[in-house]
Amino acid sequence: MKRLNEREIIDLFTSYIDDPLLDKVKNDDVVIFPLRNGLLKRMNKTSSMNIVLKSDMLVESTDVPKTMKPWQIARKAILACVSDFAAKGIRPYACLISIGIPRNYSRKNIASLAAGFARASKEYNVHILGGDTNESKELIIDCNMMGVTTLPDSKIPRRKGAKVGDLIVTSGKFGYTSSGLKIILSHLSAEEKFRTKSISSVTLPKPQVEFGFKLAKYFSSSIDSSDGLSSSLYELFQKSKVDFVIDKIPIPQDLTHFASLNCVKTDYLIFFGGEEYETI
Question: Could you tell me which residues come within 8 angstroms of residue 17 by beta carbon, excluding any fewer than 6 positions away?
């Protein structure tokens, strides 16, 4: 029996839910839907207002290299949602965090998780207002984030919308995260400076989220890159129904040296990484 991939699982779930609003908002980085007029009147608001929601789950066995500390894991769980908001140019306001904690997790590790949540809350100006806790076989963190925006719908870029003649732009460089994972998991060789930079991009990613927050209203189409550059570009291409031509790839010199040292293709490191959390 064929195993379903993530997209097929999502499509199967949504096929059972008969809701016209779901049909309108599905298949994007965040869910954006308008407040109804009755609610706006009760709030004494005359302009349109959209509610923005995002949920992202982190699972230790698939999302966390052994070198990451609990506070880094907690920070990453929040960043994963923030980067999706950034791709749409909408600043998140608050979040709820549900967490499954293994029985053998020490008080010190739990305190470290709390410190990571606090750090991310301050770093990205997101209020953590509650959540749920439970026991689990491995660490699981589910972040549910929300925001509001008065931007008109035409100023919020979706995954569809790219047009012939558009330029493809990214908010940051690619290749360091995939290199860092290969150094951690496959013990590839690297010069010390490159090793530190690449591993840090995995354990303490610092994507240029302000790029999206400030410029997204000018985008025709956009997506967060956490699934990797190749997959993200394919998603934009598929939704927008236009061909993409990549004729000039920015390749950092130190990445070229690392690839040559380990007989790895630079294109592979750049296009087939993931969790860079940049905006495309």
Answer: none
* DSSP, res 156: S
Pick from 279, 280, 251: nearest CA to 265: 251
Q: Where are the beta strands (DSSP E) in the chain?
A: 31-34, 50-59, 94-101, 127-135, 140-149
What global pTM score does this model have? 0.88
Q: How far is CA 42 from CA 36, 38, 193, 219, 241, in A?
A: 10, 6, 57, 33, 41
Q: 74: which DSSP letter?
A: H
| Alpha-carbon distances, residue 103 vs 30, 138, 188 (angstroms) | 33, 9, 34
Return the DSSP state at 27: S
Crossing angle of helices 192-203/176-186, nearest 10°? 100
Phi, psi values for residue 47, rounded to 5°: -85, 160
Residue 57: what residue type?
M
Name residue 128's beta-bridge partners. Answer: 95
- Are the CB atoms for 236 and 280 separated by under 8 Å? yes
Which H or E run contains 273? none
| Domains of the chain with CATH codes | 30-155 (3.30.1330.10), 176-271 (no CATH)
pLDDT in tens, 92-126: 999 999 999 999 999 999 999 999 999 999 999 99
